[in-house]
Design goal:
The structure holds two protein chains of two kinds.
Chain A: H1 19-28, H2 36-63, H3 71-80, E1 97-99, E2 113-115, H4 122-127, E3 138-145, H5 171-175, H6 184-197, H7 200-213, H8 221-233, H9 241-257, H10 263-281, H11 291-303, H12 309-330, H13 337-350, H14 356-369, H15 371-380, H16 383-390, H17 398-410, H18 425-446, H19 450-457
Antiparallel strand pairs in A: 1-2
Helix pairs in contact in A: 1-2, 2-3, 8-10, 9-10, 9-11, 10-12, 11-12, 12-14, 13-14, 14-15, 14-17, 15-17, 16-18, 18-19
Chain B: H1 6-23, H2 27-43, H3 46-55, H4 58-65, H5 71-78, H6 91-106, H7 110-118, H8 123-128, H9 133-148, H10 154-174, H11 178-204, H12 209-214, H13 216-223, E1 226-231, H14 232-244, H15 259-276, E2 277-282, H16 294-297, H17 318-324, H18 337-354, H19 362-366, H20 391-406, H21 413-417, H22 423-432, E3 436-442, E4 450-453, E5 459-463, E6 468-473, H23 494-499, E7 508-512, E8 518-523, E9 535-540, E10 544-549, E11 554-560, E12 566-571, E13 577-582, E14 586-591, E15 599-602, E16 608-613, E17 619-624, E18 628-633, E19 639-644, E20 650-655, E21 661-666, E22 670-675, E23 681-686, E24 692-697, E25 703-708, E26 712-717, H24 736-746, H25 751-767, E27 773-778, E28 786-789, E29 795-800
Parallel strand pairs in B: 1-2, 3-29
Antiparallel strand pairs in B: 4-5, 5-6, 6-7, 8-9, 9-10, 10-11, 12-13, 13-14, 14-15, 16-17, 17-18, 18-19, 20-21, 21-22, 22-23, 24-25, 25-26, 26-27, 28-29
Helix pairs in contact in B: 1-3, 2-3, 2-4, 7-14, 9-10, 9-15, 10-11, 10-15, 11-24, 18-20
Classes of the chains: A mainly alpha, B alpha+beta.
């Protein structure tokens, strides 16, 4: 049973170096009548010698720890074979071979190549081109593996998704222990998704991370801090981002939906907001495509009517600061972002049937966005008046404080407040305007500081 | 055997030579006829001579009488068949006689007797060899017979094909049938390509008779016996087929030839078998042998195995040689009593100072635990060293003990028992596998042939193709030499010496001195991990090894002696002595205080590519381009072990720290693990897809790490048995695809496709993961040229980052 190689072209039996080439060389040396058998014998011998040199050169290549043969290798080989090396070739600038146009008079001739020899204009080179010195050899160090696991850092190649031969069909459910906030069935499905796309290392990381963050009562605070720090600084989490965003979203929904104003829910929300903040702070992540998923949980927390009372203030302020972070980071590349958020907040502030909590949240949101937003919302759109109507006179609650805080952002109150003098005519005018803009409730509270009132109203 | 009778065979000769005459009526062919006539006469074949003479024209015969002129050509022609005898007329006879003797010495089984009986006068067949067609037929028949044989015999018959192919090809080239040789090669090489691509390529470059005469490999094929291991029953079948033409042949195969032609083909096969093959007939059946076992016992072995001086019996089996050399002293080197006492004192003092309760056990670590079955050397066995010890020696020993205590223990064997996917598996993985820190060199204009770390990891040195060495302080400390302007007479004590020292030098230095690429570097081991090394050795293509002082940052000595590029240099584990390996086929031993060679280790048939000292400094291992590795007795300069099994150049090697194993890596992309005591191969580890550049054992010899041109670092479990998880594949084809692929990458001009190929292969390799390959860590674009374990088992690897795209 033999396997004849049909594909081998017949011409190859003559070797790589053709007898015709020998004849050409002979002609160039003035030997016009070279017998065929001599030429073919010479061609064979030339080829053998070339192979000899190349084999020798390949040793130098191997010892130089390279996989490409260079002209220096050939030179070294010639040197040890006691042949004068071919000077003038350097591996730094390999010659460019160009194919010549087919010669019309001799169509049978094979393709002809020549070395491209570029003409260099010295004037131009001397005047225009700046020669840059190559940077010196330097080294960098990174972890290729840490205790047998390759960390997903930019220096290492991305993990190749590999079919794990050992994984049994029943394994996924045991692979990922239940992640705390999201209940039963969804979690199963989510785990299955995680399994398909993520490497084992990332899956483990995800499980460990979510387990160390929630539930807030049982987890170790230092562990939680470490997890958040990891989210804030580690590279290579991009693949996890959609899962984390979704996890946060579901967590927020779960915590708010139950409506129970327990301490626990407040703490869960706090942690989730921290997670969002950490994700946004991580410079190696590309968050923008997920903004539309990140915003709802943040805004929900901010504007929800009944947050657990003990955490409500803190939750709303941190949600507001996250919101402001998003806006400062992404409003340039996502122009419609700030108008949309503004609109949402104004709606929450001004619509008649909203709860006080929502209004307070909206005001914190405006504070987070900035001075201009506060002026627009509270002063120009009459948000303060609406809020003031909800506040009972003499009450010392979240909404009133929020408005005052917001107004402080607009203009800091003066150090030595001089009260507005009702008898003074100009002052009386200001008070009337103040009542018109902020409503009676806040007008009363602000009347003690004439300078502050004036600056809020826009005339200094 | 009928082919041997002259009357039957001579007419066959005439027809082809006749056609040759008609094709090329030149003087050369008539000379051939004359030679034949003369030859037959000298051998006493009267009938054959007459027949031939009749067939030739009358004037030919007339010329034939004037034979004395062409005696030289006669010698030349016949030298093909000569072994070592000088008289051409009696060569063939001597040959067959020696074969018969040899076969007879093997045993007196009836099969061998048959074979002996069948070996008639060889002369007639040699004439047949002039006809190129019989080679084709013969090989075709042999191949179909091998392929048609029973499954259980096929693995042991397959190795026969290769030497016969080589000899047929060389015969054809030798007789000037260039085209026939080409055709023969093209037709039959494809089936052998997978296992023998390197040799086949080398042979394919031979085109002219003069090449065969001058080429080293061809001459080895001609002058040496190719050893093949075979079971007794398999050998019997082969003999049966050669003599009678039956024995396991597939039905239908070979029916197409006329009986006469088939016989001639078989006769050609037979001639090679008689003249150039040596059968190592084993009692064991082949089914008991592992698929890669043939590598150790097949090939042109006789010259690879060093012949013991004085003993007349030549050893043809590497195992026989290894056992004949007796036992080795592989235990740890002894420590002088004074040094030990001083070290123990120091350890106790330090333990008191640190109030470290764990440290009190350190003293126990000092006592070497005797290993079972290993002889420890005595002080007298070691190379001569200064009798007194220095403070530095004590510090080194103390640090050694501390390292041993603080070492991260790596237990890859824990991985084999658990499922990697479970949490326990992850924990086992953590215990089993090292942390690897990769040092990537950037902006390398040409290649960087070597890179090495000092034992205390304070320094890294890299040798460049531009003939210089660059030294980096990994701790960011400045590397200070001495100022250039000072009077030697002013230096009296260490204070005045410090005055002339440079201040605030750079953290990297260039050492210039060589005039060729620097191929190897080695830091002196005297300070161990207690302090930075004082000296650096380098080996270069300019045939020198140089010693660099890291105190003055200058070249101190150039060691000249090698005639050719020096490929590798390695310090003895106790300093003072070092060894070099060179292209001139020798390894040499030097001491730093002499510029002349102390010992020359000669015996390899090709370049010595790498050299390493055994941890107790009694032995030296070398790896060579003749595909073997050897172990030498450093003092006696004798080879004490030979390791045959690689199917390519041995590119790098490493000793296990416990002194019992040697790991070698070859261009066949395999890593072989050898037991030094017995000289046997423990196992073969495959998985790399390109050249392997460096090997290193972990501190407890349980884990082997390798790095190579496929841009990966791989971790191997030394203790596990290995093998493939799925069903074993057929007949040693394990390294087939890899080998061919490597040959391709030499000529690869588009590096991007190569990269894609490498990726693909690594994915493929993962599917065929061996169980002893415990982990593989790819880098982005960095071939790993050095892997190194610190004494505390942190793994450090180094390599140059390749630029993107073709250069």
């Amino acid at each position: 049973m033999s396997k004849p190689k049909a594909s081998k072209p017949a011409s190859s039996s003559g070797g790589l170096y053709k007898a015709e080439s020998i004849k050409d060389v002979a002609e160039s040396l003035g030997i016009s009548t070279l017998p065929d058998n001599v030429a073919s014998a010479l061609a064979s011998d030339v080829e053998y010698r070339i192979h000899q040199v190349v084999e020798e050169a390949s040793r130098f290549m191997r010892h130089a720890r390279r996989t490409t043969l260079t002209t220096t290798d050939i030179d070294q080989a010639l040197r040890v074979l006691n042949i004068e090396p071919l000077y003038g070739h350097s591996p730094h600038n390999p010659p460019n071979f160009r194919r010549a146009l087919p010669f019309s008079q001799l169509p049978t001739a094979g393709p002809v190549y020549f070395v491209e020899d570029e003409e260099i204009d010295f004037d131009r080179v001397l005047k225009e081109e700046k020669l840059s010195l190559p940077a010196g050899v330097r080294w960098t160090a990174h972890w290729l593996a840490v205790e047998g696991v390759q960390p997903l850092i930019p220096e290492n190649p991305p993990a190749v998704p590999r079919e794990d031969a050992h994984a049994t069909p029943g394994a996924p459910s045991t692979l990922v222990p239940p992640t705390p906030p999201s209940p039963g069935k969804r979690q199963q499905q989510q785990a299955a998704l995680v399994k398909q796309v993520l490497s084992r290392e990332l899956q483990l990381y995800y499980t460990r991370l979510t387990a160390s963050l929630l539930p807030p009562n049982t987890t170790d605070p230092t562990k939680r801090a470490a997890a958040l720090a990891s989210l804030r600084h580690d590279a290579g989490l991009q693949a996890l981002l959609p899962y984390l965003v979704r996890w946060v979203g579901e967590g927020v929904v779960g915590a708010l939906k139950d409506g129970s104003q327990s301490e626990n829910d407040g703490r869960v929300l706090e942690v989730l907001l921290d997670v969002v903040a950490a994700l946004l702070e991580n410079t190696t992540l590309f968050v923008e495509p997920y903004l539309h998923q990140i915003l709802p949980p943040v805004l929900s927390t901010l504007l929800h009517s009944t947050l657990p009372p003990s955490h409500s203030r803190h939750l709303r302020t941190s949600a507001a600061s996250t919101l402001s972070h998003i806006l400062t980071q992404h409003s340039t590349t996502y122009p419609s972002l700030s108008p949309r958020i503004m609109k949402t907040l104004l709606l929450a502030l001004l619509s008649p049937d909203k709860s006080r909590g929502t209004r307070a949240g909206a005001i914190w949101g405006l504070v987070g966005i900035g001075k201009e937003a506060v002026r627009k919302g509270l002063v120009e759109a009459g948000g303060a008046r609406v809020a003031g109507e909800d506040c009972m006179p003499g009450e010392d609650g979240g909404l009133g404080d929020a408005v005052v805080e917001a107004l402080k952002v607009l203009q800091a109150p003066s150090d030595r407040p001089v009260p507005l003098d009702m008898r003074n005519e100009a002052d009386a005018l200001v008070v009337t305007r103040l009542r018109g803009v902020l409503g009676d409730f806040f007008a009363e509270r602000l009347m003690g500081d004439a300078v502050w009132v004036r600056s809020i109203l826009g005339d200094s | 055997m009928s082919a041997a009778t002259p009357t039957a065979s001579t007419p066959d000769v005439l027809s082809p030579s006749g056609t040759l005459n008609s094709l090329e009526p030149s003087a050369g062919t008539t000379a051939t006829d004359r030679l034949v006539v003369e030859y037959l006469r000298s051998r006493g074949h009267k009938a054959g001579e007459e027949l031939l003479a009749e067939a030739l024209s009358g004037d030919d015969k007339g010329k034939g009488s004037a034979l004395t002129t062409s005696a030289d050509t006669l010698v030349q022609k016949l030298s093909v068949f000569s072994e070592k005898a000088s008289q051409p007329g009696e060569n063939a006879f001597k040959n067959s006689a020696s074969i018969i003797q040899e076969l007879a010495s093997l045993g007196s089984s009836s099969n061998i007797q048959n074979l002996i009986a069948s070996i008639g006068p060889v002369g007639a067949e040699e004439i047949l060899s002039l006809d190129p067609t019989d080679k084709q037929e013969g090989f075709r028949e042999l191949e179909s017979w091998v392929d048609g044989s029973l499954d259980m015999y096929r693995p042991e018959f397959r190795p026969i094909l290769f030497p016969i192919f080589c000899h047929f090809y060389l015969d054809l080239v030798q007789f000037g049938f260039k085209d026939a040789a080409q055709e023969f090669f093209a037709t039959f090489s494809s089936s052998l390509e997978s296992m023998h691509s390197a040799t086949l390529h080398r042979l394919s470059t031979l085109r002219l008779p003069s090449h065969v005469q001058s080429d080293e490999l061809a001459q080895r094929f001609r002058n040496e016996k190719y050893t093949i291991r075979m079971s007794r029953s398999g050998f019997g079948l082969l003999v049966g087929w050669l003599t009678d033409g039956v024995g396991g042949e597939a039905t239908g195969a070979g029916e197409g030839f006329s009986g006469e032609k088939g016989k001639r083909g078989r006769a050609a096969v037979m001639r090679v078998v008689n003249n150039h093959l040596r059968f190592d007939v084993a009692a064991v059946s082949t089914t008991a042998m592992s698929p890669t076992a043939w590598e150790e016992s097949t090939g042109l072995l006789s010259s690879l195995i060093p012949q013991a001086g004085g003993s007349a019996a030549s050893l043809n089996n590497p195992q026989a040689f290894n056992t004949s050399k007796g036992e080795l002293k592989l235990g740890p080197a002894p420590l002088s009593e004074e040094l030990r006492a001083e070290t123990e004192k120091m350890l106790r003092e330090q333990a008191m100072l640190d109030r470290d309760h764990g440290a009190q056990y350190d003293v126990q670590l000092m006592r070497p635990t005797p290993q079972a079955g290993v002889i420890s050397p005595t002080t007298a066995d070691l190379l001569p060293h200064p009798p007194m010890f220095k403070t530095m020696d004590v510090k080194r020993e103390v640090e050694k003990v501390r390292d041993a205590r603080k070492r991260i223990r790596l237990e890859p064997s824990a991985l084999s028992s658990v499922d990697v996917n479970t949490p326990q598996g992850a924990a086992a993985r953590q215990r089993a596998l090292p942390s690897i820190c990769a040092y990537t060199l950037h902006d390398i204009p040409e290649g960087v042939p070597c890179c090495t770390f000092s034992q205390d990891t304070s320094l890294m040195a890299a040798g460049f193709e531009e003939s210089y060495i660059r030294l980096w302080s990994l701790k960011g400390e400045s590397l200070n030499g001495l100022k250039s302007d000072f009077q030697l007479s002013n230096i009296r004590d260490s204070a005045s010496l410090n005055k002339v020292r440079e201040r605030g030098g750079p953290v990297t230095r260039k050492l210039i001195g060589h005039s060729g690429p620097v191929y190897s570097l080695s830091f002196d081991p005297l300070n161990g991990s207690a302090a930075p090394p004082k000296y650096l050795l380098s080996a270069s293509a300019d045939a020198t090894a140089r010693l660099w002082s890291l105190d003055t940052m200058t070249n101190v000595v150039a060691y000249r002696g090698h005639q050719n590029p020096v490929w590798d240099v390695n310090w003895s584990p106790m300093g003072i002595y070092f060894a070099t390996a060179s292209r001139d086929r020798t390894a040499r031993l030097w001491s730093t205080d002499r510029t002349s060679t102390l010992r020359v280790y000669a015996g390899h048939l090709s370049d010595v590519d790498c050299v390493r000292f055994h941890p107790n400094s009694l032995y030296l291992a070398t790896g060579s381009s003749d595909w073997t590795a050897r172990l030498w007795d450093v003092q006696k300069g004798q080879s004490v072990r030979v390791f045959i099994g690689h199917q390519g150049i041995v590119s790098t090697l490493a000793f296990s720290p416990d002194g019992r194993y040697l790991a070698t890596a070859g261009e066949d992309l395999a890593i072989n693990l050898w037991d030094l005591g017995s000289g046997r191969r423990v196992k073969k580890m495959t998985g790399h897809t390109a050249s392997i550049y460096s090997l290193a054992f972990s501190g407890e010899s349980s884990l082997l790490v390798s790095g190579g041109a496929d841009w990966t670092v791989k971790c191997w479990d030394v203790k596990s048995a290995g093998g493939l998880p799925e069903k074993p594949r057929t007949n040693g084809m394990v390294n087939g695809s890899g080998g061919r692929d490597h040959a391709k990458d030499h000529t690869q001009d588009n590096i991007e496709t190569y990269a894609a190929l490498v990726r693909l292969l690594s994915v493929l390799a993962d599917f065929k993961r061996r169980t002893d390959l415990v982990a593989s860590f790819p880098t982005k674009r960095t071939p790993i040229i050095n892997v190194h374990f610190t004494p505390r088992n942190l793994c450090m690897v180094a390599g140059p980052a390749l630029p993107l795209g073709p250069r």
